[in-house]
Every structure is written in C-alpha cells, then in structure tokens.
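Researcher: We're teaching a course module on how sequence relates to structure. For the next exercise, students receive a sequence and then see the predicted structure as tokens, so they can try to spot secondary structure elements on their own. Here is the exercise chain.
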Amino acid sequence: MNYLAHFYLSNYDEDLIIGNYIADDVKGKAYLNYPLEIQKGILLHRKIDSYTDTHKIVLNSKNLIRYHQKKYTPVVIDVFYDYFLAKYWENYSKERLKDFTVFIYKTLFKSIKHLPLKSQIRLPFMAKSNWLYNYREIKGIERALKGLSKRSNYSNNMAQAYIILKEKEDLLKEDFNAFFPELKSYANDEIKIANSSF
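Model: And here is the predicted structure for the students to work with:
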C-alpha cells in the first residue's frame, strides 16, 4: 500500500504513523535502532505490504494493468488504491480528509530530526505539494506517478499509468472496495497482537 493507506491503518497512533512512514527507508534489522513503539509501526508496514502483495483481490488488480506496467505493476496498484481511499474517504472515516492530512504532517514534522535522511528530505516535498490530499484526483495521481517514474533507475511507463486508471477505474474500484475492509481488519488484528507481545 502507499502512504495514505499506511497512515490510515495506523489508527491515529503517532508512533505507528512515524514507523509506517519511515519503513521503506529502514532496511533489514535496522528497525531495532528505533524505540519499541516505532518498531511496531515499521513491522506493521512490512506486514501490510506482505498481506497486500499476496492477496488474491490485489493480484486480480495487478493482472488488469500488468500488460501496461510490467514489473512496476505492484507500485502502480499501491498508488491507485490510495486514489480510491482518498476519493471515497467519507466511506472510511468520519474526519475530513483535509483534517486528517494536516494531522499526519504535523505528527511527522514533530519528529523530523529523528527520521532517516531520505524520510527527512521527502517530507517537506510531500507536505508542500500535499500529496496525501491530492491523491483524491486523477491529476494528483498523475503527478505522483510522474515523480515515481523520474526517481526510478530503470526505464518505465509509470508516467502514463493514470491513463489506465481512467480506463479501468470501475474494475479497480470494485477490487479496492472488496479488499480494503479485509486489510483494515488484518491491520487492526496485527496492532492488537503487537501491543500484547512487545
């Protein structure tokens, strides 16, 4: 899953939010260098990604766009799913998306000095362009995918993936609607397990 989903699945827990944010920049056992509560967020992020990557509904979504995105299909589907979460936010939260994103940015900036360097560098760009809030529109997804395309070390077609989102939106939305409640339940269970075992 992409940023918005990971933050949402952190259930407003600031340590989980931080851990979920930095997880991709913390490799292997380096997570042990962080406080226990942030470790939980890093490990939750990894479990969410593993659950998502192997879920049959997500695999169906990947098959819808694989011809166009090849090896970048998983990355693109993660971004597409954030689009559906943002666009239909009111189905998943009583709080306005704009208010939620403000809370997330404030939470992360409070701890910016303690984040990995890559995470520190990324955060001001994320906040200034308001990635999380703009995921609700195709234009926001287009910008996000173009950014990912530029940062990739390999030739890719991610900058054009928004076209596939337009073409396949109804089918992809159906997959997201079926999958996300299952993911939310899974994440909540993992949080409970972590809180009882750490």
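Model: If you want an answer key for the exercise: The CA atoms of residues 20 and 45 lie 5 Å apart. The longest helix spans residues 161-197.
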